[in-house]
Amino acid sequence: MNTRAAPISILGAGLTGLLLAHQLGVRGHRVRIYEAASENKPLAAAHVAAAMLAPLAESAISHFRITQMGMYSMQRWTEIILQLAAPVFFQKTGTLVLWHPQDQAEAKRFCSQLNQTLQQDPSIAPYQKLNRAGIDALEPSVSSKLLEGLYLPHEGQLDNRQLLAALLQSVLAQGHELLWASSKDLADFSDSEWVFDCRGIGAKTNWPAVRGVRGEVLRLFAPEVSLSRPTRLLHPKYPIYIAPKENYQFVIGATEIESEDLSPMSLRSSMELMSAAYTIDSAFAEARILESAVGLRPTLSHHDPAIRQISEHHYQINGLYRHGFLIAPSVIDAAIEWAIEGKTELAKQYQIRIYEDYASVSQ
């Protein structure tokens, strides 16, 4: 592929911006990144995410195409992480799903949705039903009150902050320029300049349909907890996840609030998260709260990612919603393929929405 004499500009140094810059660099392009935040004050939603890679589990609440993008991205993360200059915690030991005896109806609904996904794509490893002995074999510290569960093999997670740091280090090592505290808009560039807008919620001025969905997480230090793999607790009102990271850290989250409020976490949310964590493993009672964090997940009305071309050389990537780390490689690969190579095979294969004019994305 021919590289371009002038650098390609990227707006936003969050997950999509850094991953796009890195992959363009791998392909021989020069890049300049503009980030509105200062270097020591990250604002991207990716900074507070749990970064679970659970395509089958997510299919219970998402479109099948999200699962397909996730399966593709699981393999791509393996390749991308090997390209990075710094190590990244990347785990593929499956997901554990649990429920209380009184939530059998929710478990039945969850299994039914997983079965539909497995029928659509038989290549996905099926889940395994667990009795109490099965739970003990995987995670012996889980509360004895939780008698049944599921094991979803081959799912995993990565460390979001390690990944962002490694991407940044690798992008700089590739020779790209990153300008912190530099707020830019698409109107600041001529139509002849190549620009990718990856600002997430910050792109609302150019894509009014983008909105933020508030998410809240706790990050705990719990050396007494031995939970070793991502774990979900089904509940009709308060489903939660626990993602164990390195050095006895755990990210606990669940909330999705239709709000763009970035004020600190509410007492209600923190109590629900801590109570659910304690329900799974009572050793969380001695955990230390390292931080409570809030982020805005950028989404569109259909909750699917989209790539939008608004002029010959101006593109926007947005709407990754709650699936950022799960699907980012597929979306970035599709964007590069479409914008740089003039092909849409990946977008068509994974039904990634692509828009070629402003009017088509007014919804």
Description of the molecule:
The chain is an alpha/beta fold and 363 residues long. It has helices at residues 15-26, 55-58, 64-83, 104-120, 132-138, 160-173, 267-280, 324-339, 345-349, and strands at residues 8-11, 31-34, 52-53, 90-91, 95-99, 128-130, 148-152, 156-158, 177-179, 195-197, 211-221, 231-234, 240-244, 249-253, 288-299, 306-309, 314-318, 353-355. Helix 1 (15-26) crosses helix 8 (324-339). The longest helix is centred in the N-terminal third of the chain and has 20 residues, at 64-83. The two termini are 35 Å apart. Mean pLDDT is 93; it is low at 359-363.
Brief descriptors of the model:
globular; eight-stranded mixed β-sheet; 363 residues; alpha/beta; D-Amino Acid Oxidase, Chain A, domain 2; 30% helix; single chain; 18 strands
Query: How many helices?
Result: 9
Integer average pLDDT: 93
Hey, roughly how much beta strand do the residues contain?
15-25%
What is the CATH topology assignment of the largest domain?
A: FAD/NAD(P)-binding domain
Please report the distance between the alpha carbons of the first and last residues. Answer: 35 Å
Helix-strand sequence: EHEEHHEEHEHEEHEEEEEEHEEEHHE
Summarize the amount of helix as a percent range: 25-40%
CATH class placement of the largest domain? Alpha Beta
Report the CATH superfamily of the largest domain: FAD/NAD(P)-binding domain
Task: Give the SSE map.
Elements: E1 8-11, H1 15-26, E2 31-34, E3 52-53, H2 55-58, H3 64-83, E4 90-91, E5 95-99, H4 104-120, E6 128-130, H5 132-138, E7 148-152, E8 156-158, H6 160-173, E9 177-179, E10 195-197, E11 211-221, E12 231-234, E13 240-244, E14 249-253, H7 267-280, E15 288-299, E16 306-309, E17 314-318, H8 324-339, H9 345-349, E18 353-355
Parallel strand pairs: 1-2, 1-10, 2-9, 5-12, 10-17, 16-18
Antiparallel strand pairs: 3-8, 4-8, 5-7, 6-7, 11-14, 11-15, 12-13, 13-14, 16-17
Helix pairs in contact: 1-6, 1-8, 3-8
